[in-house]
Amino acid sequence: MAEPQGSSALPGILAAIVAAKREEVRGLRPRGRELEAEALAAPPPRDFAGALRGGTHVALIAECKRRSPGGGEIHPGLDPATLARTYEAAGAMALSVLTDAPFFGGSLADLAAARAATALPVLRKDFTLHPLQVVEARAAGADAVLLIVRILDDNALRALHALAMELGMAVLVEAHDEGEVERALQAGARIVGINNRDLATFGTDPGTTMRLIEHVGPEVIVVSESGIRSREDVTRLGAVGVDAVLVGETLLRSRDPGATAGELARVARGRRAHG
């Protein structure tokens, strides 16, 4: 497999995260066979893609994370099982769990706890560079993995996508501009996440999704990520045919994450005929 983009090609904090991930991969190498066996023995994946496509409303992917480089401390004391049950009761269709420890305060134990507490499919949200991380995700029970176009070259993107599919997982392929959307589609992405956050600056612009969705055909599931703060935001996204929204900080900073999730989970989705 080709190497992902070098850290020198990435901006600031993203370069630091990628460097840390490479160290984690080195630590995983001795456990390769063990992880493969655990992945094969893991419970069957839940249908992440079906959960996003299955209704007339914009599907809510509700996130569990304690902190972020851009947002600082968000919900340091969260209990993933309790939060997952709250999200499920509020109408969320899927969960996203940050499993990066150094920058986001997460773990694979968080993912396992959230999944065990609900019937919802769970996305492992992390910075995936290597096949061992994909295998590790399945071994931990992940139903889907995140691949970020910005940190992968085309060969790596295709290979990691194919491996995740072989293991029965869905793949959320994240893009931030038109070129990255095209690369995601060329890699075979069936679920494209349009990140409204620029990973170079960590600033957000919800209009990013509105612009880029025109380049994605209706056969591909579109998820809008980051900067979604209100029901009105979801309504605007649903009107242009966005299938799902991934929301973290708005829920986690809310006084009542369940009530806020409920507001965002019941927005009608329009049809998307272009692309």
Lay out the secondary structure.
Layout: H1 12-28, H2 32-41, H3 48-53, E1 59-64, E2 67-68, E3 72-73, H4 80-90, E4 94-98, H5 108-117, E5 122-125, H6 131-139, E6 144-148, H7 154-166, E7 170-175, H8 178-186, E8 191-195, H9 207-212, E9 221-225, H10 231-239, E10 244-247, H11 249-252, H12 257-264
Parallel strand pairs: 1-4, 1-10, 4-5, 5-6, 6-7, 7-8, 8-9, 9-10
Antiparallel strand pairs: 2-3
Helix pairs in contact: 2-6, 4-5, 4-12, 6-7
Share of helix, binned: 40-55%
The CATH homologous superfamily name equals Aldolase class I
Q: Tell me about the biggest sheet? A: 8 strands, parallel, barrel
CATH level-two architecture: Alpha-Beta Barrel
Spatial shape: globular
Order of helices and strands: HHHEEEHEHEHEHEHEHEHEHH
Number of domain units? 1
- Average pLDDT reading: 91
Number of strands: 10
Which CATH class is shown? Alpha Beta
Note poorly predicted spans. Answer: 1-8
Give the N-to-C terminal Cα separation: 31 Å
Helical run tally: 12
Q: Which structural class do the helices and strands define?
A: alpha/beta
The CATH topology is TIM Barrel
Strand-residue fraction? 15-25%
Tell me the strand order in the biggest sheet: 1-4-5-6-7-8-9-10
Rg is 17 Å
